[in-house]
């Protein structure tokens, strides 16, 4: 019983502090849902060319701030001078899922995650000094499946993707 209490406390502290440590959470309505995302924007000197944007897609059951934390993206962004946006997938049956296509269409009730990510990119360009030729997607697990779909359907916005532990759907 003691270990359950420590585990629960650890999860609560991680969720609570991750917003302060790894970025600020924002939201906007997309379709019928309030969609959320976390941004980590290091202190950057003015740059007339803009800065690269990395979109971080978490795996199933995870969330954006956790992806930034476990991939050590905040530290890397501070060192290499890029901006991170880590969107959160919607929750279906107590698990966060991306609509990566194929069977995920049914799990996610046809949610338009490609449209959401496209709108997120537009929002980031509007609100930050982004170099529109250097927009990348980095992803893990089911986020990788979503990254392949985004690369195919948003190739006019995405320069490249990097995936880990996820197959094409």
Radius of gyration: 16 Å
CATH topology category name: Rossmann fold
Number of domains: 1
Return the structural class.
Answer: alpha/beta
Structure description:
The structure is a single chain. With 169 residues, the protein is α/β, with parallel strands linked by helices. It has one domain (23-164): 3-Layer(aba) Sandwich (Rossmann fold), CATH 3.40.50. The chain has six helices and eight strands, in the order αβββααβββααβαβ. The chain has helices spanning 2-22, 64-70, 73-80, 104-107, 113-127, 142-153; strands spanning 24-30, 33-40, 51-57, 83-87, 90-92, 95-97, 130-140, 160-164. The strands form two sheets. The protein has a six-stranded mixed beta sheet with strand order 1-2-4-3-7-8, with helices on both faces. Strands 5-6 form a two-stranded antiparallel sheet. A hairpin with a 2-residue loop joins strand 5 and strand 6 (95-97). Mean pLDDT is 88; it is low at 16-20.
């Amino acid at each position: 019983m003691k270990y359950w209490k420590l585990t629960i406390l650890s999860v609560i502290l991680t969720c609570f502090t991750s917003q302060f440590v790894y970025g600020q959470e924002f939201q906007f309505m997309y379709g019928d849902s309030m969609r959320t995302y976390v941004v980590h924007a290091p202190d950057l000197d003015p740059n007339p060319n803009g800065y690269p944007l990395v979109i971080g897609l978490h795996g199933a059951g995870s969330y954006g701030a956790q992806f930034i934390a476990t991939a050590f993206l905040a530290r890397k962004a501070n060192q290499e001078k890029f901006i991170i946006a880590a969107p959160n997938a919607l929750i279906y049956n107590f698990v966060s899922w991306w609509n990566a296509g194929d069977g995920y269409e049914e799990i996610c009730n046809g949610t338009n995650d490609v449209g959401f990510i496209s709108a997120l990119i537009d929002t980031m360009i509007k609100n930050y000094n982004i170099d529109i030729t250097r927009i990348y997607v980095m992803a893990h697990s089911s986020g990788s499946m979503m990254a392949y779909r985004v690369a195919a359907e948003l190739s006019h916005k995405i320069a490249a993707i990097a995936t880990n532990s996820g197959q094409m759907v």
